[in-house]
C-alpha cells in the first residue's frame, strides 16, 4: 500500500480506475481509455487545472484516488480543502481505502494550516452518505449548491437571456 500525490508524468496510472469510474457512473456512455488519457493529460493535469490528485496504490495498481484543491479565502484567515472526487475500485471497497485517502487529505490540511475540509456527495448515492457519516463527518444542510451547465453556461457567458 502506498498513498502519494501524483504528477503529470504519473497521470496515465489513473486510466484504468478512471475507466472504471466512467463505467460506474455513465455505463454505455462512458469515455474510452484513449479519451480518458487525453483528458488526464490536457485537463486534470493541465497547467490551469489547480487540482491535485492523490492515489492509493496496491502494488503497481491504483485502486483509489481523490482530487482536491486548497481554496482561499476561508474563515479565520485559513484555507478550505475541497475534495472534488473520491473513488475506490469495486475490488478494494470495504478495505478502508477511501478512509485512508480522506485521512491523508485531513493530515495535509492540518499541515497547511487549513481549518476546513469540505466536499459534496450525490444524493442518489446513499452509500457515500453512510460512509461519510460513519467516519464522523457533518452533513452541512445550510449550504446550497448552484450550477451553470452546457447551453446555460454558454448563454450566461455570452450575456444572452
UniProtKB/TrEMBL annotation:
PANTHER family: DIAMINE N-ACETYLTRANSFERASE, GH14572P-RELATED. Residues 1-158 form the N-acetyltransferase domain. This is GNAT family N-acetyltransferase. Transmembrane segments: none annotated. Signal peptide: none annotated. It comes from the Bacteria. It comes from Vibrio zhugei. Its EC number is 2.3.1.-. Coiled coil: none annotated. It is an enzyme of class 2 (transferase). CDD domains: NAT_SF. Keywords: Acyltransferase, Transferase. GO terms for molecular function: acyltransferase activity. It holds the Pfam family Acetyltransf_1. The keyword GTP-binding does not apply.
